[in-house]
């Protein structure tokens, strides 16, 4: 497992798609000159990650994007309900289910590690990624 | 950055790659794993996608009619044996590349003339730099739970024929360990005599998930036959949520975590304490799909008990741990400890450099690519190579494979 270090070499700008084509709470997967990058939208903000899971290198950006599962307990410790918390969404690797914080790219079970991130910008309604 | 240098991205439809294991191929290249021999000692097919082919080999006409008449919806839970639990965690895990709405979790490749199961398996092997693969079933791993003994016996025979004659025969990289319907020793002998020595057959398998006390005299003929031929016998595990102690568990996570090692521990304990390695010294014993963490536990536990109650295991000439360290264990799911030195300690306790055999378990949802072993920071390169392929080449007497880039690129 390696840390998602910032890219070191010169970056190329890629035109991805109109910003409205990135679904809220989901994303798109794009090939940027041989590198696959997932671009996700959460509460209107865009986040771009390398399609390489920190576990065994799986296609993490092909995975489900879901709210984190929470249990609501009452004062007595009894379960009131189980729900998906959409304010805290996870990107879930389809190979073995490792979960990442959609906003930070951090590995949910060990936040010392995170997915490699790319800079995303929107100009005139078009999404660009530097990779 | 000026806009004239901007390039267009290529959009991948539905966030899906063309092939589920595209990243695996990239990861294997990155590590140079196409240049070392890798043997996958436990991979799977979803045999029920080819059920009519298997059913054609059922010998009992009434059992065959049951399988021909009923729909697959009835057959898997009702006639084979359903095993509870959502493997996909509500669709979070895309086992074999399937996503919501897909009919099959096992997309069969286009094999041309080749059997589609063989073609699909070879494609995944190429993506994971695997040179040989031993193929096991999926739903039929649970046949030991089926109370209809006739179906157990008939279906096992039919599956073995299909696997050996139709699938494995397609390519010398595909291997099989036919299933033994252990409840029926005569049929086991017939199976061994029919399949031993056939191309691709490297031993036999007994499912862990069954309730036969294998030390009883009636089964000794089977092990004597295997011993005479010096063949490996594998115990392949599976979980069972319906098993009484597991019914208290809240989730499949707990059932999956405990179920596989639970049944493997029972079989291994019985094999060792009833002195099977002393009775049948030529058999190589393999325990599959139960991980490793249970092995150091059992080593300490059985030694301690044996010292207090050795008269209950009179055939043993050595400590239980010494027999266990002579056995083999497949790696998947490889349980890395949080601290690499703890993984190393586990590896040493079970003599891992000799006893561990890499397994992918592909296309199941908890599969391991060879990176699971190659990336272990405390294993030497020699140890990684032994676990990934060297141990299995020696154990099964396999010829050195042709190394390099995959012949059939995915
Ligand atoms: S590769 Fe992503 S969870 Fe294993």
Short structural description:
The complex is a heterodimer of chains A (131) and B (410). Chain A is an all-beta fold and 131 residues long.
Account of the 3D structure:
The complex is a heterodimer of chains A (131) and B (410). Chain A has 131 residues and is an all-beta fold. Helix content of chain A is 0%, strand content 50%. In chain A, the strands form two sheets. A six-stranded antiparallel sheet of chain A has the order 1-9-8-4-3-2, with no helix packed on it. Chain A is globular. Chain A starts with 12 loop residues before the first strand and ends with a strand. In chain A, 40% of the residues are buried. Chain B is built from 16 helices and ten strands. In chain B, strands 6-7-8-9-10 form a five-stranded parallel sheet. In chain B, helix 7 packs parallel to helix 8. The longest helix of chain B has 22 residues. The mean pLDDT of chain B is 95. Classes of the chains: A mainly beta (131), B alpha/beta (410). Chains A and B meet through strand 1, strand 2, strand 3 and strand 9 of A and strand 1, strand 2 and helix 1 of B. The structure holds FE2/S2 (inorganic) cluster. The site of FE2/S2 (inorganic) cluster has 11 residues of chain A, from loops.
Name the descriptors.
heterodimer; A: 131 residues; mainly beta; Rieske Iron-sulfur Protein; six-stranded antiparallel β-sheet; three-stranded antiparallel β-sheet; 9 strands; 0% helix; globular; disordered N terminus; B: 410 residues; alpha/beta; five-stranded parallel β-sheet; three-stranded parallel β-sheet; 10 strands; 40% helix; 9% strand; binds FE2/S2 (inorganic) cluster
What is the chain-wise order of helices and strands of chain A?
EEEEEEEEE
Gross morphology of chain B is: globular
Structural class of chain A: mainly beta
Global Rg of chain A: 16 Å
If strands are numbered along the chain, what order do they take across the biggest sheet of chain A? 1-9-8-4-3-2
SSE string of chain B: EEHEHHHHEHEHEHEHHEHHEHHEHH
What top-tier CATH class of chain A fits best? Mainly Beta
Query: Multimeric state of these chains?
Result: heterodimer
- What is the number of independent domains of chain A? 1
The total count of strands of chain A amounts to 9
- Neighbour order of strands in the largest sheet of chain B: 6-7-8-9-10
List the uncertain runs of chain B.
none
Mean pLDDT across every amino acid position of chain B: 95
Which geometry of chain A do the CA atoms define?
globular
Main sheet: strands, sense, barrel of chain B = 5 strands, parallel
CATH third-tier fold name of chain A: Rieske Iron-sulfur Protein
């Amino acid at each position: 497992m390696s840390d998602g270090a910032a890219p070191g070499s010169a970056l190329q700008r890629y035109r991805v798609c109109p910003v409205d084509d990135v679904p809220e709470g989901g994303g798109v997967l794009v090939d940027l000159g041989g590198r696959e990058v997932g671009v996700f939208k959460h509460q209107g903000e865009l986040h771009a990650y390398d399609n390489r899971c920190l576990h065994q290198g799986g296609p993490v950006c092909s995975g489900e994007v879901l709210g984190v599962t929470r249990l609501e307990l009452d004062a007595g410790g009894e379960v009131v309900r189980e729900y998906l918390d959409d304010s805290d969404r996870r990107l879930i690797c389809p190979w073995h289910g490792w979960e990442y914080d959609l906003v930070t790219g951090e590995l949910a079970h060990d936040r010392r590690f995170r997915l490699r991130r790319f800079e995303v910008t929107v100009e005139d309604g078009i999404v660009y990624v530097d990779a | 950055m000026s806009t004239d240098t901007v390039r267009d991205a290529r959009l991948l439809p539905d966030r899906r790659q063309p092939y589920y294991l595209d990243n695996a191929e990239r990861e294997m290249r990155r590590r140079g794993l196409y240049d070392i021999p890798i043997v996958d000692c436990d991979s799977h097919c979803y045999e029920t996608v080819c059920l009519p082919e298997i059913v054609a080999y059922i010998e009992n006409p009434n059992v065959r009619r049951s399988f021909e008449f009923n729909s697959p919806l009835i057959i898997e839970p009702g006639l084979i044996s359903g095993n509870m639990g959502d493997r996909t965690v509500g669709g979070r895990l895309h086992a074999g590349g399937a996503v919501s709405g897909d009919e099959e979790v096992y997309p069969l490749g286009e094999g041309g003339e080749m059997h589609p199961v063989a073609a699909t398996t070879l494609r995944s092997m190429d993506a994971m730099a695997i040179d040989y693969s031993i193929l096991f079933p999926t739903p039929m791993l649970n046949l030991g739970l089926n109370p209809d003994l006739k179906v157990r016996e008939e279906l096992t025979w039919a599956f073995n024929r299909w696997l050996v004659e139709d699938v494995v025969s397609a390519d010398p990289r595909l291997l099989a360990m036919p299933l033994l319907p252990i409840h029926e020793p005569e049929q086991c002998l017939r199976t061994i005599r029919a399949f031993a020595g056939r191309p691709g057959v490297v031993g036999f398998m007994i499912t862990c998930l069954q309730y036969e006390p294998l030390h009883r005299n009636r089964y000794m003929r089977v092990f004597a036959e295997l011993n005479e031929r010096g063949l490996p016998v594998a115990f392949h595990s599976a979980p069972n949520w319906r098993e009484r102690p597991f019914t208290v568990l809240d989730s499949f996570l707990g059932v999956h975590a405990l179920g596989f090692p639970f049944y493997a521990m029972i079989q291994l304990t019985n094999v060792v304490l009833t002195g099977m390695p002393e009775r049948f010294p030529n058999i190589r014993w393999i325990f599959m799909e139960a991980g490793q963490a249970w092995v150091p536990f059992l080593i300490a536990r059985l030694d301690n008990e044996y010292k207090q109650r050795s008269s209950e295991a009179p055939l043993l000439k050595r400590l239980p741990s010494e027999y266990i360290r002579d056995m083999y264990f497949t790696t998947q799911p490889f349980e890395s400890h949080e601290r690499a030195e703890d993984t190393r300690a586990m590896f040493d306790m079970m003599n891992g450099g000799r006893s561990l055999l890499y397994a992918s378990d592909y296309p199941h949802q908890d599969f391991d690519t060879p990176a699971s072993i190659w990336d272990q920071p405390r294993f030497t390169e020699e140890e990684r190579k032994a676990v990934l392929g060297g141990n299995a080449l020696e154990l099964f007497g396999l010829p050195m494979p042709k190394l390099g880039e995959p012949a059939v690129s995915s």
